């Protein structure tokens, strides 16, 4: 419910403080919205989401408006019911974003969405902040692709500028003979293309930073991320990289959050080379799968911190309480994970690992669909990795 404040009634440098008891509207009702609402409900906020799928994951933790994301009338209804609006994905329709900004309060604004919806705009913004990205070229046709491959060298990765996720919309070009095939495959989408140099990384890491409307920034500990079939499989914290790499990754993430005037969370994915050099791969202005570990392993979870930031409450400490490994539960793992939850976990007891299960309440389970995750609290991350191995569920 709106509390009767007028648009323009902004208390801190153009930003309002939204207090517990007020309503937070979320565009998108997937697992990120669900977990945001779980954290915010505990603080006393109310939630309303907009999502086209009946019984979406967040419908169990928030009132859901069932409508397509581009439905302007539904966006208006969301705006009317909400004191503040946020989103759980970056591909928000531009028309809807402007209606929400005009008719409600969107502290994150639409500029960051506009930037992170498009790989080329995103890379330009990262470079503008003085933060390194993998060398790249904008591709305008087959000839320009050939030229770019000559300049960047092989291997390299051709990507669509928009719409790609979990490795979709990209082609790794290893040999010159694959050039035509890569171009034909990706150009069929009609989207703009970008070619990146292939970074031979030692590991992939991410940093999630929160920024308040006053410009305070607080980062979560660096997570080391292992992907299988381009889908996040494990997040390992503390990341097995040097202190110096961790410090630098956090510095870069905070620099980006500040340079991009972020309010709320900014997730920054990076490649780390053997020499300890860092390149930013991707940004997301929202909670991120690689920071689900914060739910039990940090003083404050990423979801609570996001709520605090958009509501203009003071950010809280992000200290790590325990080493942790997060393992994603995909459709193909679900039955075994649920079965295991009802049994005594001998392996966990032997290894001294405490598994914390989170399921997203999705009604349909499919191969490679994210159904939940487990945070494995441990004394040493190797014990948690051994648990994942010994359960035989993720083979
Ligand atoms: P993305 O959709 O950009 O996050 O890419 C998905 C995955 O592909 C990344 O997590 C990396 O493992 C790999 N990848 C993407 N771009 C590059 C690159 N330029 N060099 C090496 N690996 C890459």
Please tell me about this protein's structure.
This protein has helices at residues 31-42, 72-81, 94-103, 111-116, 119-128, 142-152, 179-187, 243-259, 294-297, 302-310, 331-341, 346-351, 381-390; strands spanning 23-27, 46-51, 63-66, 84-87, 136-139, 156-160, 170-173, 193-197, 201-211, 217-219, 223-228, 231-237, 264-273, 278-284, 324-330, 354-359, 370-377. The chain has 395 residues and is α+β, with helices and mostly antiparallel strands. It folds into 3 domains: 7-106, Rossmann fold (3-Layer(aba) Sandwich), CATH 3.40.50.20; 135-197, ATP-grasp fold, A domain (Dna Ligase, domain 1, 2-Layer Sandwich); 203-391, ATP-grasp fold, B domain (D-amino Acid Aminotransferase, Chain A, domain 1). The strands form 3 sheets. Strands 9, 10, 11, 12, 13, 14, 15, 16 and 17 form a 9-stranded antiparallel β-sheet that branches. Strand 13 (264-273) and strand 14 form a beta hairpin. Mean pLDDT is 94; it is low at 1-12. It binds adenosine monophosphate (AMP). Adenosine monophosphate is lined by residues 134, 157, 164, 167, 196, 198-199, 204, 227, 230, 281-282.
């Amino acid at each position: 419910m709106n509390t009767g404040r007028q648009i323009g009634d902004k208390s801190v440098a153009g930003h309002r403080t939204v207090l517990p008891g007020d309503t937070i509207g979320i565009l998108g009702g997937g697992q990120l919205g669900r977990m945001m609402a779980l954290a915010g409900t505990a603080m006393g906020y109310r939630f309303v989401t907009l999502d086209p799928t009946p019984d979406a994951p967040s419908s169990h933790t928030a009132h859901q408006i069932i409508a397509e994301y581009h439905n302007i009338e539904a966006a208006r209804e969301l705006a009317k019911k909400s004191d503040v609006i946020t989103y759980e994905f970056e591909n928000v329709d531009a028309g809807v974003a402007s209606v929400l900004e005009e008719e409600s309060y969107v502290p994150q604004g639409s500029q960051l969405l506009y930037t992170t919806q498009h790989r080329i705009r995103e890379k330009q913004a990262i470079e503008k902040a003085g933060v390194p990205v993998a060398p790249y070229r904008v591709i305008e046709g087959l000839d320009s692709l050939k030229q770019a491959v000559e300049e960047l060298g092989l291997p390299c990765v051709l990507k669509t500028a928009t719409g790609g996720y979990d490795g979709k919309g990209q082609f790794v070009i290893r040999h010159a003979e694959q050039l035509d095939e890569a171009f034909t495959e990706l150009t069929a989408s009609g989207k703009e293309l970008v070619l990146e140099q292939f970074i031979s990384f030692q590991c992939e890491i991410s940093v999630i930073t929160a920024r308040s409307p006053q410009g305070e920034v607080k980062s979560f500990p660096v997570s080391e991320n292992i992907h299988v079939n381009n889908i996040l499989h494990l997040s390992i914290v503390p990341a097995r990289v040097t202190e110096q790499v961790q410090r630098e990754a956090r510095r870069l993430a905070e620099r980006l959050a500040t340079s991009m005037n972020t309010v709320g969370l900014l997730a920054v994915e990076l490649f780390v080379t053997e020499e300890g050099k860092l390149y930013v791969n991707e940004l997301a202005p929202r909670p991120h799968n690689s920071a689900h570990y914060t739910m039990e392993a940090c003083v404050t979870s990423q979801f609570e911190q996001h709520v605090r930031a958009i509501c203009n409450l003071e950010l809280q400490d992000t200290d790590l309480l325990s080493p942790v490994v997060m393992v994603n539960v995909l459709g193909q793992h679900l039955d075994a994970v649920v079965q295991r939850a009802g049994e005594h976990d001998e392996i966990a007891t032997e290894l001294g690992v405490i598994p914390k299960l989170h399921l997203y309440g999705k009604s349909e389970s499919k191969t490679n669909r994210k159904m939940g995750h487990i945070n494995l609290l441990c004394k040493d991350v190797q014990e948690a990795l051994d648990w994942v191995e010994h359960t035989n569920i993720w083979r």
